[in-house]
Amino acid sequence: MDLRVDRSDPMPLAEQVAAEIRRAIAEGEACPGDRLPLAKDMAAVLGVNKNTVFRALHLLRDEGLLEFRRGHGITVSGTPEKSALVAQVRDLVRAARRSGYRKSDLVAMIEAVR
């Protein structure tokens, strides 16, 4: 993967790293099932702190793009489409919570949609 960050960009470095990994997945440089390099190696190549890379990796895990498995490293588990869908689901859950709906209410609504 060819990853780069721009220190002059106002976007936080962790978000830049996450965006670069998203781009690599979208362009097929990293496919579902592929293992990512170690965080410390990515940090060294990018010239950033290892914790910055970990923050980016956790963002992508929460989006459904990456999977962390002890003894197996970090692997690509999703696609950009799945990531976009997960983001929409998060927005839906937030909106439902703000409106006073519980998880069971939201599940019932989804099940009722045909």
What does it look like?
By secondary structure, the protein is mainly alpha-helical. It folds into two domains: 66 residues, Winged helix-like DNA-binding domain superfamily/Winged helix DNA-binding domain (Arc Repressor Mutant, subunit A), CATH 1.10.10; 31 residues, no CATH class. It is 56% helix and 7% strand. It is built from five helices and two strands; from the N terminus they run αααββαα.
At CATH level 2, the architecture of the largest domain is Orthogonal Bundle
* Helix-and-strand structural type: mainly alpha
Spatial order of the strands forming the largest sheet: 1-2
Helix content: 55-70%
Principal-axes geometry comes out as: elongated
Question: What would CATH call the class of the largest domain?
Answer: Mainly Alpha
Secondary structure tally, helices: 5
- Strand % is 5-15%
Number of strands: 2
Q: What's the arrangement of secondary structure elements?
A:
Elements: H1 13-26, H2 39-46, H3 50-62, E1 66-69, E2 73-76, H4 80-98, H5 103-112
Antiparallel strand pairs: 1-2
Helix pairs in contact: 1-3, 2-3
What characteristics describe this protein?
single chain; 114 residues; mainly alpha; Arc Repressor Mutant, subunit A; 2 domains; two-stranded antiparallel sheet; 5 helices; elongated
Report a brief summary of the structure.
Helix content is 56%, strand content 7%.
